[in-house]
Amino acid sequence: MFRIARRVVLAWLALASFQCALAAPGSAASSNATPAKGSLVIIGGNLRPGNAPVWERILQLAGGKEARIAVFASAAGYPEKSGKFLVDRLNAYGAKAFFVPVAVKLAGSDYHAAADDPKLAELVRSASGAFFAGGDQSRITSALRHEDGSNTRVLDALWDMYRRGGVIAGTSAGAAIMSSTMFGRPRAVLATLKLGVEDGKEITDGLGFIGDDVFIDQHLLVRGRFARMLPAMLAKGYKLGLGIDEDTAMVVLPNRDVEVIGYKGALVLDLAGASAREGAFNVSNVRVSYLDNGDRFNILTHEFTPSEDKADGKLDPSRPYYREPLFTADILGNSTVVDLMSKLIDSDQPEAIGITLGSPNGVQPDLGFEFRFTRAADSVGYSSASTDAYSIYKLRLDIRPILIRRPIYQYK
């Protein structure tokens, strides 16, 4: 078995070495050096092959045409298939991508041995970028860390490449690993609100490329996951969370500027002034912002900058568009939270309310939650001059548990 695994790893190394020979040689950085930090491209999942702005930004940050990008399909159920697709896709945009054979599910391979292979580590170190596929994020950390939690040689090489100025991109599971804490075996969103999170189960250690001060989540708006971020952030003491939607990316630059590019957008959750009560999940004074395509946010200064098409579109509170009460019975629905926030920031209403409740056959069926959004003194919104899109900064959010009386409806 070991001989078979060794042959598989050597075959992939030979292929990667051949691809490296086609590209200009790069210099490896010492792990003890302190060069400028690199960039991150954090993608919310389901990145479409034709989403050129995201693919091209990855290539640009890696150095442009013929940049060598290491592809990790470690999270995938079928790493060979996923890895080949990503190598082909990156190469179609002009890269010299190569597959890294470090994956729990890679047939015939000993991923422990591959992750500590010095030749493979050097290939990764000398690249100018890396891309992590989606799947199960726990497979990434299992493949790249030893059982005692220490780094494998390949993970150390990734850090060296990143510190040298390379780019690390990841989609879905590849986005989850970007923070030092990630979801491991999470429950559904509503169940997470009801039952909370436990270290080593629902949440676990990520790889932490973005640093220890920011929590990351993905598939955010499509799956209503913004709500599950809050229990995790409170449990681990995070004050700032960034959640990115599908087919969309957050580009994090060395100066910690975050730019949103792609189909939809991202939420910024600020818990600096928030307070939580014991018992059923109950939190007040969370600040929530929505970054649309082209918007920027700085992690250090918390400064927001709207996209060019919204720069002159600051909303005037004295001239609201919406003039009726704002309410939704499904705040965790697909993009419902952004729709409600957009209406509130351009409304004459002081607040917007959303609720969520579960099946009468589900866990704690009598427990639901109210999400109350209000405009604060520093809340501000921008609208696009060319599309029906908003950017919303610094709304207040309070979440309270509510009692669901059954049955909640009767037939007439």
TrEMBL record:
CDD domains: GAT1_cyanophycinase. This is Cyanophycinase. It comes from Massilia aerilata. Residues 1-23 form the signal peptide. One of its GO terms (molecular function) is peptidyl-dipeptidase activity. It catalyses: [L-4-(L-arginin-2-N-yl)aspartate](n) + H2O = [L-4-(L-arginin-2-N-yl)aspartate](n-1) + L-4-(L-arginin-2-N-yl)aspartate. Keywords: Carboxypeptidase, Hydrolase, Protease, Serine protease, Signal. InterPro entries: Class_I_gatase-like, Peptidase_S51, Peptidase_S51_cyanophycinase. NCBIfam families: cyanophycinase. It holds the Pfam family Peptidase_S51. Its EC number is 3.4.15.6. Exopeptidase that catalyzes the hydrolytic cleavage of multi-L-arginyl-poly-L-aspartic acid (cyanophycin; a water-insoluble reserve polymer) into aspartate-arginine dipeptides. It is an enzyme of class 3 (hydrolase). Belongs to the peptidase S51 family.
